Amino acid sequence: MVALRETLVVPVRDGHVDPRGWRRPLPSVIVGAYLMYAVLIITVLVSAVVVDRTTPVNRFDIARTADLPVALGYWFTMLLTYLASLGLGWAWRIGCWLVLLVVSVVTWLVGVFAVLDGGNLLSAALSLISITVGAILMLVATITGTRGELRWSTTILATLGLAGTQLAPSLISTRASVLGSDALTMVAALLIPVSVPLAVAAGTTFAQVAVNLGVYTFTALRDLTEARIWPVVTGLLAVPVVGLGVSTGLRIGGSATALTIGHMLISIGACWAAMSLAARRGASAPQPLRITQSLADRGMLFGLLLGSWGLLNMVDSLWFTLPLGSGVLADGVLLTGAVIIGVQAIRRADAAAAVLAAAIAVMAAFAGIRILAELPSLSGAVGSAALAVIAVALALPRWGRSGFTDRRWFVLALALLVLLISPYRIYVAEPLESLVGSSQLAVLLIGLVWLLLTEAEFTRRDSPRLPRTPRLLLFLAYAMWAATMTALVAHGSGSMAMALDLGQLAEAGDAVIGYAVAPAVVVGLLAMGEADAVVETAHPEHELVLTAKL
């Protein structure tokens, strides 16, 4: 229970958006955003049943049942973005307004012409009247909203104004046009790349939770049991880790097994080299929880790098053919970014970020080579078995000479537990997969909800360039847009879904970035064992701190 609380409850407690402590009308805006987010999530959950039973679709093969929730999510996203812009500096404020204006004009033009194409002049006139009234309300909101703190009057005016300029025309066009929700779908096709980093980051949450759960579980057991059990636990864990790896290796064939083992050997070498370079600058051993925290802190950045695959895929599919292919180029972007991040981490003596970046760089290189050479996929179970054998082979002779202490047995047992859990980290999405009808969509959905509930610490900081209120509203707007695009993709079956599948991006985030977490954590634990480090709980109610020196 302690492990589950530390892994699942504490991150939500410390990382969620708390409506309390904000000046009005922000608490109401937060509650409204969460309710809208819940509606979009429910829309995704029922999409498999709804899409199967629904025949009307628009020209992008999006089921018409997505019209209302997507229109509401789109409208709420624009509202949050607009309210956030009022608290920014003038340069950023005008930039936000220009983006909103361009998106609005595209929506208006497509929506009105779609209605006219259907021959419904009355609906076209209603759309124009709604847009005009909404624009006047937005002008008043802008004039009054730039005079200090966000107020109820500004919020209400902006809500009504955007309802007139965005929501009403969208709903009118979906009802009166033979094209359905083409206006929103076309805008979404242009802006869906904005949600790419969050989609990839959502896929990495499974690796973080798996490692954290293993660390907290064994730390709790250590405080309740005698130290002499850890050699036995180590042996008991080694059997299933190696056994599952061997059985999987026999099933997938020699080439995939050899490729996986080679990848793990290179990953261990790269991580150890990065750690040693960071240690020369005084870095401590990379701690498991520090590594997962480093991934959480840089998840959006890694998501942007790997998510370039989605942007390149759209270019490759819609405009012109890319050399090497979008997947290889995106892996190259991730490799380059990971190397830069690793070098910066070494200079800052941040061993956790350094080993993580090294592992991700190796994985990105292997992913690109695998696509070019048409090699088989890496196996998680075989990789865990290879890491287990490498860890034991390195630990037994070195630690045996200097003394195999209880602390070293504990660290080795913890490494084996992480390796046992790691290949099956994504299986937690299987119950949801049966409901939404797609493993990729289930991974994306769980990851998005987890990020929304745990990554809002960004909103608690303040700076002159980005005050707290705009931080909060931009965070909510970004999460809302990602949920809206997820709902849109969940109701698609054709060209729109193929253009950029957010679920596929989330799965790629787990397969590439999440896969690299295990070797980084194992290297960190081996370094702690080398120093005969003590795994300590600095704050039993909250944070586990592993203290060690190389």
TrEMBL record:
Segments crossing the lipid bilayer: 29-51, 71-90, 97-116, 122-143, 155-172, 184-217, 229-250, 256-279, 300-322, 328-346, 353-372, 378-397, 409-428, 434-453, 473-492, 512-529
Keywords: Membrane, Transmembrane, Transmembrane helix
Lineage: Bacteria, Bacillati, Actinomycetota, Actinomycetes, Propionibacteriales
Protein name: Uncharacterized protein
